[in-house]
Amino acid sequence: MRAATGLVALVALGHTLWSGLTDPGAALAFGVLVAVGELARRDHQDHRDPDGHPPDGTRGPAPLGSAGGLAYALLGQEAGRATHHGVFQTVAVVAAAALAGIVPYLARSGGPALDHLVRRVLTVAFAAVCFQPLYHSGRLEQRIGQGPYLVLFLLLLLGLTALCDAVLAAALAGARTGWPYGPLLRDELRAQTGIGSAICATGAVMALGVAVAGLWALPVLSVPLLLTQLSFHRITAIRTTYRQTITSLARATEIAGCTRPGHARRVAALSRAVGRELGLSERELTVVEYAALMHDIGQLSLVDPVPAGATAGLPPAEARRIAELGGEVARQTGVPAEVAVVVERQADPYREQPFAARIVRAVNAYDDLAGDCRHPGGSLAALERLRLGTGHDYQPEVVESLARVLARGGRSGVVPVPRG
Length: 420
Fold this sequence. Notes:
By secondary structure, this protein is mainly alpha-helical. It has 17 helices and 2 strands.
């Protein structure tokens, strides 16, 4: 897909250079708008979740750039004067401006930033191909005119463009990570109903505003979306700090000698990977991650620590006591109530547990058993032990998903396990 995008961009740029730039003022204005939108995204790596995404649904990294690119693709007039830029010039201008804006991110993050450029170019190309030939040939005006039907047409086209963007984003993420395509597409579609709707609406309004008032409409219409983008940055920073606080709190059990070093982080990373394999949404994955980080926090209240912090082999009564203490501590930290519920129900029969608790329980048992010297077979023996407990202690679907994740190499240094 990257190669196809590069070919499309090169063809568009070559055609534009050969035939000359049409309406250079509009091309420069929209190019600057797209470049500024990309530069303003400030999509730092330390503001990403463990999967490499902005946390908790903040997936619109450059809404101003996206809206500017869509507006240029849907631009038919400028201050009542017909424009004559076509599909090739639209793609060339947006590709060049987006590339100029993401150069700093390409140097730092590589693949994700390049995927972002692929999405931008192909999405704008789709919108331009659907609009520009119809408009400049006059067929669009003959069939629907310039009234409210044109607005409805633009909204329909923007909806299809948003769907195209979601499909591309899910495909690129699936190729990069190997995660199931269905859950990725669902997350991207859900994201489109949030900031995606604002981007599409602003793109349409920009195109219509420039058609009536000229290029002076661009800075006026860009301010609300720029403020929205800055607000997303602040929300992202707050959520990142919150995640870091929970991670630091989870380390208290390691510092106190209650659990093995890195246990909470390993369980959280692997639980998140298993949850994604099972098709959980981003919000559900966040609950799983937080609960996994805090699942052993109740051990801080014990007088006599559990040997090596391994709770998988404890008697049910003692395991339930630790889980209930952990739930109380979790509630006092201010985490969402559902996270505390997952923590305090770790020792319940798995059929009575929330689904997130079943994931954390199985992954915690795996990490305890894999690190136990009584299992010389290491991770393979631990996984077989979990399979023997399915139907009573662990949900079979969770254990098999765990096996698939481990077969692909797991996360955070987890030892791979052969399938079957």
